[in-house]
Amino acid sequence: MSEVRDISQVRKEKDSLGFVEVPARAYYGAQTARAVENYPISGMRAHPELIRALGMVKRAAALANKDLGLVDAHRADAILEASQEVIDGKWTQEFVVDVFQAGAGVSLHMNTNEVIANRANEILGGALGEYAEVHPNDHVNYGQSTNDVFPTAMRVGTLLALETLYPVLNNLAGTFAAKAKEFHGIMKSGRTHMQDAVPMRLGQEFAAYGRAIEKGKKFLQSASDSLRELGLGGSAVGTGINTHPDYRTKAVANLSRISGERLTPAEDMRWAMQSNASMGEVSAALRGIALEVIRIANDIRLLSSGPNTGFAEIYLPSLQPGSSIMPGKINPVMPELAAMVSFQVLGNDAAVAYAIQAGQLELNVMMPTMAYNVLQSITIMANTLRQFDQRCVAGITANPERCNFYAQSTVSLATALNPYIGYARAAEMVKESVATGDSIIKIARAKKLLSEEEIAEILDPVRMTEPQYPLDAAKQRDVKTKA
After folding, report:
1. What CA–CA distance (Å, rounded) separates 475 from 477?
2. How distant, in Å, are the alpha carbons of 29, 206, 216, 292 from that of 222?
3. For labelling alongside 455, which of 195, 375, 469, 478 has CA 20 to 30 A away?
4. Distance from C-alpha of 439 to C-alpha of 445, rounded to nearest angstrom
């Protein structure tokens, strides 16, 4: 038995391919409906910042077209009002095209044009699907092409999204810096090659983590500056066909004011359309931060390992039971999360890199995957590092006794003796320490290499944590003579 369709729930619209059924109350139209049918791929929709940026581009273009007398004032005003509603998030649910769609983002762009056109017609007293006053292509898209609108919106959307990540990075770097001060007086053993190294301060370790995040943020900010040069006005192939000579400068100036971002017209519109290297720079900077986060998260997991059979130099906040079978087990869930999300960022960067090199001639049609992956990386990184900061790093406490034990036990204390007895003799002491389990300090006492005063001075772990002038030459000669 065939299904009976309720024709009151749909309307028919016509595009260049013929008639299409569209949900009756949808603000999108025929081309969007075709895209929904063609691309039921992931169920994921455009990032909110990309939708906002598309609304901003349409508003900037409408202002320029109105100012230049290219679109009637009453139509332009309706487009401006509808575009602002898109920017404000009022119609986000109407952007229904899958993130994996037709090349260049044509489908999402037409989704935008149709939503704004239908809403503008409604503002002017018309009905949905009747484009008598405002047409998606003829008016909303006047002087524009997907080929300059989508890369512009992708760049602006990325700049807007990054504004949510920068404060998170600042806060995380600041929390590490605060922990560095809190742990400044706690001595521990450094480790290189996962083996004992010379003593250091726990605070020095944490200070370095903070600096890594700070440096990553600065590199990301520098990379993002390349997004500010826009090809809006290039139209179909970067030549500006069907645009007024003053349109591009006016539109970009409008967009800069609307978005609050510092934006400029590209010196070469063909380059701006062919190349998406700027998205690659931002993705690479995100990858760099992700690599540092993985490294730091793994360090924190090591430092907190235990409680009885690991390093146990620090304690992490207890957030949830860690095992379905082992009672009382607590896992380092936030560092684990930070690493897993960072792996996703690395994968996203690989997808962006493949997409960037896949452009041909006047257009790179792989932009939807660039936009999706870069924006997802920003979002998941911001959300994850906020939690990592607030629910992990801020609550870390030290185990001073365990740290000091390692500081006194490391065989690399012998390094401090190099200037006095030489590398070879110091290496012999290390071998003896490993073989007997005796500390370097105990062996130095047994061999009567040093007086108690000299042991206190030369083998003081605190003294080893900063550059120091060596002891005077006479004392060095005396110690070598004893050896």
Report:
1. 5
2. 40, 25, 10, 18
3. 195
4. 10
Look at residue 455 in the predicted model and tell me its pLDDT: 82
State which fold the 148-400 domain adopts: Fumarase C; Chain A, domain 2 (1.20.200)
Q: Where are the domains of the chain?
A: 21-142, 148-400, 410-482
Interstrand relation of 229-230 and 264-265 (parallel, antiparallel or unpaired): parallel
Q: Report yes or no: 103 and 153 within 8 Å, Cβ to Cβ.
A: no
Per the residue annotation, which of 323, 324, 342, 451 is the catalytic one? 323
Give dist(CA 355, CA 371) in Å, integer. 10
The question of whether 323 is a catalytic residue gets the answer yes
Closest CA to 54 of 136, 125, 133, 121: 136
Q: Residue 4 has what pLDDT?
A: 43
Q: What is the pLDDT of residues 45-86, one digit of tens each?
A: 999 999 999 999 999 999 999 999 999 999 999 999 999 999
CATH 1.10.40.30, applies to 410-482: yes
Q: Which CATH superfamily is domain 21-142 in?
A: Fumarase/aspartase (N-terminal domain) (1.10.275.10)
Tokens of 277: 């290297």
Residue type, 150: F
Residues 415-446: tens digit of each pLDDT: 888 888 889 888 998 899 999 988 888 888 88
